[in-house]
């Protein structure tokens, strides 16, 4: 986890293959109090090298870059530098690759027309372990995933009073997903996921995650 604390100077790497965007972000964010831009990269490989060199608190990462794109860079960053908070940038609100980036481990996402104060707040929130979603992107992704989240017509209701959402979360737990991964997939806050899991444990009589997974397997959930 990041060692950054609220109120401390936030050290940031910026990665975007468009020089004008990259340089603009460096100037805008670097001019804000509490933000220090320690490096700027034109592709994912350069971004990884800068992160290894400067050990920033957060990285602002364009999704579409040459050599190594934002999704590949996110996977590598999560594996090699899990303490660095990742905020991805997308040009279009309907960019479906945002979902891939969230599954890969990004904490937040914004569109490139977000102003510098919004970006700074997203970076600080991500470094503090929170998630910030651009409302327009969020709405698009919710619409894109709504069909897969709907229960099948005529399907038997979940056992022991579980709601469809609780059964869905239990299934994701049974697949080995962590709370942050579940939150990203379902576009819910970590707090909401924890609340659902507490109810799942109570309804299924599970003392811990392992017991809940056993319950899921016995009832063919997941």
Describe this structure in words.
The protein has 222 residues and is α/β, with parallel strands linked by helices. The protein has 2 domains: 10-142, 3-Layer(aba) Sandwich (Rossmann fold); 151-218, Orthogonal Bundle (Arc Repressor Mutant, subunit A), CATH 1.10.10.10. 51% of the residues lie in helices and 13% in strands. The chain contains 10 helices and 5 strands; from the N terminus they run E-H-E-H-E-H-E-H-E-H-H-H-H-H-H. It has a 5-stranded parallel beta sheet with strand order 2-1-3-4-5, sandwiched between helices. Helix 3 links the parallel strand 3 (58-62) and strand 4.
Outline:
With 222 residues, this protein is an alpha/beta fold. The protein contains 10 helices and 5 strands; from the N terminus they run βαβαβαβαβαααααα. Strand 4, helix 4 and strand 5 form a beta-alpha-beta unit.
